[in-house]
Amino acid sequence: MRCAWAKRLSWCCLLCVACSGTSGPEVADGGTVDGRQVDGWPADATRGDGGPRDGTLEEAGHVVDARPSDLFNLGHDAGQAPDAGVEPIIGSNILRAFGSGVHGVKALAETSAGVFLGGVATRDFRFGPHQMPRTHGNTQGWVGRLLGNNALWLIPFESTGEASVDRMATDGDQLTICARFSGTLRLGGVNYRAAGSSSLLVVRIDKAGTIIWVKPFDSQTARFGGIAMDAKGDIYLGVTFGQTLTVGGQQFIAPNSKFDILLVKLARDGSVLWAHQYGQKWDDDVLGLAFRPPNAIHVSGEFYGTLALDGTSITAADSKRDVFYGQVDATSGRFVRASALKGGNDQYHRSMSVVVGVPYVAVLSTVGKLDYRGAPYTPSRPSAALIVELGSRGEPVQISELDPLGLSSLVELHSGNGTLYATGQYATTVYWDGITRTVPATAPKGNVPFIATRNSSGSSIVTLDRWSGDVTLDAATSDASGGLLVAGRFTDKLGAGGQLVATRQRNRSYLWRITP
User: Fold this and answer.
1) Tens digits of per-residue pLDDT, 212-228?
2) Which of 88, 100, 195, 273 gives a 20 to 30 Å CA spacing to 311?
């Protein structure tokens, strides 16, 4: 049963460096811990934004601002001439591009204060004029803020091991960040030493990039499976952990070398309001979490065998890996109801979302059979991811098929003002709600990002165009207008609407907005 977790970590987890030592924050003036020099940290280690805070993306030579009717030319790295033949175009959905080296955006949030981004980077990473210092050669984390064309600031999450910013959420005023690290992480002038190969931090910042507080989740092996915030600024977290995890002075133990689920609620000031552990003799995994006003948390994930959730016992079909869904009371943190989707073979959770109070879960099943209204449901397209609308007690009430052919696609669900968005990648054909989009036979081989939408006006599929090089979709978030903001990476040439809109000689990130 450990193999499924190992397989998941191969693409979800960037933290593989084991270390030892006492975990938790330690004031680190001059790169020291308890008066001792931390190996690998220079005595004059600084935050190192690498540039002025009022700089713009134009200064780095790659500005894009693509609201409809705007003209722009995304051209070149600093010091290089634009590629020949790239002309300004009108009306693309590409917003802007940034970064250098090998990197990726893993978390997004947008407020009236702008767009907040977080992720990972190797080599020298540039965000507008701000360059993250590369004290160590491993994968490091970062958070930045865009406002218009201005790259206002960059906060590096630098570790002697590896670090990653995985998730974020906002209440419109402040930002909450979920990060993982190994080794010793330096953040805001303080060093945090990991208890194992993957320790966790929750970080609260304001729009100026000022760190308000940091809450360590000391653990040997753990990952965040979801984050949500309510209007009061309280924070809800789903964590999957192995061995031990300590938060708020309370230690939780996952027995039998398996992985358990921890649900946590933090107050706006970072204090722990409640924390509840769930698990049994096999691996259990929380992978989706969403808040629904006024007081409900929707949780979903994967489990084997039987799982007890506050008086509700759910059982997987035929001792296979199954997907569960549950509703939790936000005040007590206890499950009100829970159910299993009961597939005919192993099922793998992909994402969840709540659209105007209705929860949806995306499932990838090796066979595709689900219990549906008292009878098995077998999809017409065996390779499809199933988008399952859930009823008041977690029962499937409607199932849609999303079939991106040609690769094992990332599928994530998001919502905004009544619109359901499913994001992913395909290589040849994508099918959704009776709509089919096919890559032209003359197009270069590789991944093509797509956004499948559904609302009261109908369904649609929007794609980027892969002109050459690689195009990857990494993260998405609902925006203030009910649309979707998407982040990814590309090399060489990128297109939209049949037009060439971007050309790079090296890896670059992009933002792409879909309007409702």
Assistant:
1) 999 999 888 899 999 99
2) 273
